[in-house]
Structure formats: structure tokens, C-alpha cells
């Protein structure tokens, strides 16, 4: 399994070990030992740079591959070639090595993303919704997804995912609320789909255990919640962890919109602002995804509730 020390990776390692599988985790960056995740028993760790190292030894003796490692969307990385190298070429090489090692096509599970749709606001999507990625990250993931599916593998599209070890958008929101730097721009009652790391891990395990060849799935918590509800849950979890926050503030949308428009204008001339029209849309419009196909085909049922997942994520961030 690649990306084994990441947020979803840690949960997937735990899920597979609990099911009786032996796991070879591939990592780069922070070592598993530094994260309290040392090799033991049926778990071994191998350090590798997937873009340049020989990947054949990584899959030797394995009967399945879960490919989570990726160059994720980052504001400081603009080079499309970097995303193609890390996300497309690496996936092609790893999948080719898996096939050469005799691994069944349906036992190669690839972590894709809802960024392939090209919209992060005012959208409800399922696997049949047209894709139109608008970032090098989304483009590279869609290209890799197509390679995997054409070769008989399985691809799972993930929305915003959170859990212990999270360093993405969810963690950013937690830190903003903790520091009193977050305000709701209006009611913020529109639904959003999220995915806990534990539920993602469950989905990946089901996919490889059932060898869902040439299948594409969306995974979610199957429990859409509003940004307002999410912010309140985070604040409550922070209080439980000994980090009480100031009461959540709500600003009139009519006041926030001009500031967001100004922030977007500044961005067009190279100046960054945390308040933009794009950020405002993410908080005030619906963004939901259907996991009905995974439920129907894989028997996927979330194993962790939204509330429990939020508490675990917040607790891990507070203790980090």
C-alpha cells in the first residue's frame, strides 16, 4: 500500500490488519516510527520514491495493491508536468508492475478525487456525472483513473477526507475555529459531503477483497451536513479536548461578498487573500456526492459516524 503514513493510509493499514491481511506499507516523508506506527507482526514498511525507484520489488509477493500516494493540490505547485509525473506516470508504472507480478486486475485500487468534476460548489454528482477538471491535479488524477479502469483496476473518488493525521482543508478549518479566525458568511445551511478516513479505509478494503474489476466508485460518509453544523461540531470537539473556543460568529452575506470580490481581484494581480469568491461559494453552496453504487455493489456501509469522526480528527490535531 502506497501513502501508508497519510491520513487515509493509516486508517487503511489498521483496517487491513484487523481483517487478517499482511500489509507492506510504502512511505516517504515522515517515517512511520516518528508517527508511532512502527513495523510489527504482519506490518512491514518500505521507503520508496515511486516516481524514480524500481517499483517491482514493492509489489513482489503481494496479492493486492492500494495506491493512495499522490501529489495533492497545493497552491505553491503550478507545474502540470509535476502532477503528471507524480500522479499519472507513477500510477502507470505501479499498475504495470502489479500486472507483471500476477496480481488480479480488480485487486488494484486507486485513490481518485472529486476534483475530476472541475467544480467545488453547487454540485451533486455520482459516477455518471460528466468530468471537466480545471486544475493540473484534477487532470492528472482523471488521466490516471482512466488508465486504471482500462486495465481492469478499481478507482474510488474521494471528497474532502479527514481523520487522525489530516493536514488538508479540514485541518485548516479546525485551526481557524480554534484560533477564533473563522466566521460563518451567512446561514451556511447547504449540505456538503465528507468522508472519514475510517470509512475510506473500509471502502478500499471492500474493493480489493471483492476484486471489483474495472469499476468506479464514489465514497462518502453517506451523511451530508452543513458547514454550520460542521463548525459547531468542531467547536464542541475542541472544547472536549480542553481547547474551548470563542462563540462562532456569523457575518451577513451581503457584507462578506464585497470583501470576497476584492480578495478575488487581488488574487488576479498576484496578491493572496483568505477571503475570495471561490472560498465564499464553498461555504455557502451545496456540494454533495452519491455513494449509492458502492452501497449497492460493494455492500459499503459507513463504519464511523460523522460525530465520532470529527471528535477523533480534532483530538489528533490538538495533540499533534
From TrEMBL:
Taxonomy, superkingdom: Bacteria
Domain NAD-dependent epimerase/dehydratase, residue spans: 1-213
Signal peptide start-end: none
Gene Ontology molecular function terms on file: aldehyde dehydrogenase (NAD+) activity
SUPFAM superfamilies found in the cross-reference section: NAD(P)-binding Rossmann-fold domains (SSF51735)
Pfam family for this entry, one: Epimerase
Protein known as: NAD-dependent epimerase/dehydratase family protein
Species, as recorded: Eiseniibacteriota bacterium
